[in-house]
Amino acid sequence: MEMEPGKIHTIDFESETLGETYEIQYYLPKNFSDLYKHEVIITFDSQDFFRYGQIERAYEKLRKNEEIERAIIVGVPYPSVEWRNDYFSPNGDRHDDFVTFVARELISWIDATFPTLKVGTSRTLMGDSLAGSFAFSVAATYPATFSQALAFSPFVDDAFIGRFQSQMSLMHLDLYHTIGLEEDDFITISKEQADFLTPNRKLNDYLSSEPLEYTYRELEGGHVWKSWKPELEPALKHFLG
Questions:
Q1: Domain residues for 209?
Q2: Which residues lie closer than 8 Å to 230 by C-beta, 6 or more apart?
Q3: In the chain, how many domains are there?
Q4: pTM of the predicted model, to two decimals?
Q5: What would the 3-class secondary structure string for 75-98 be?
Q6: Residue 160 falls inside a structural domain
């Protein structure tokens, strides 16, 4: 396995529990050394976090100025729009299985492979749109394992809000949640008309009343990386500062 710092690597990961192979990406920072323990950032829709969000550049800039702690970035890309609907969407057929995969197999592999801190408060999940719903879903299901999560413009419905309502230990969580003011009427990647703003405000109403660390931001703009990318630096500082 390649461990060259400052590069995005890709491997095929065979899941024993799901009997499937997934592509996993990982980025080791430029000053990576296994003498230090690292925090872990896991991004869903990882090819977009690298390509459009340029998350590794945001990380390196903040790290160079010593504004954040050492971290490695691991990512789960999506092979197709259909796959994304099956695995990342909260209503997808494979959603719950994939949540289990991340919480049991993926994090075990990360902790066995890299020098990590191995506690929930040193792990941050990130996702955009359906992948943002997925990041929140994993955190809501396993709040002690993954205490920190960011969702840019997640898909939300009443059943999704119910995932948080049924979880007793939300106090472990630190969530960062954004939605765009232009997301009251737009066309999704699946070519469907959607209003994300209203249900995201409903989720905000609920989470704001619960005993957790919670940051909510309504952004100028729509369901695009142009709105999300500027949020990466403040989010990294929030979670890794």
A1: 8-240
A2: none
A3: 1
A4: 0.97
A5: EECCCCHHHHHHHCCCCCCCHHHH
A6: yes
